[in-house]
Peptidase M41 domain-containing protein (Culex pipiens pipiens), 159 residues
Amino acid sequence: MCMALGGRAAENLTFDRITTGAQNDLEKVTKMAYAQIKFFGMNRAIGPLAFSEENDQNPYMEKPYSKALGNVIDREARRMITEAYEKTEQILRENAEKLRTLAEALLDKETPNYDQVVELIGPPAYDDAKRKIEPVEFEDSLKKLAGAAGSSAGGEEQK
């Protein structure tokens, strides 16, 4: 989640505003949060439960949980996203010089590759050999997650 929120947080810290370009990242993070809570049972407040996708084809199908639990799900999703965003901003503040260096490089070259980023700000804190997912794989996994989560992230949030 922090990785997906990085651009949004960087805009906020650097320009003291957030553009619409960060909206797609926020949609992804919202879907991630709801998937963790509703599909994967990865939330202490909800517990080890999994709810199948609501069927958009059948408007008469009810959600398999109460409105009260739906409100808890929404609250937990907001909490998860808020905590991830705050952590992301903290990481960026702690690495403000690296953020500035990378931002300046992005003005020159819009899409630097991994090696160019390492040259600019140094290697990641973790072992480079452990880097198992490529950016394209990450994007594909988010698309699959979005397909699984569908419109369920809306729920009470959009009302």
User: Anything to note?
Assistant: The longest helix spans residues 67-94. The mean pLDDT is 82.
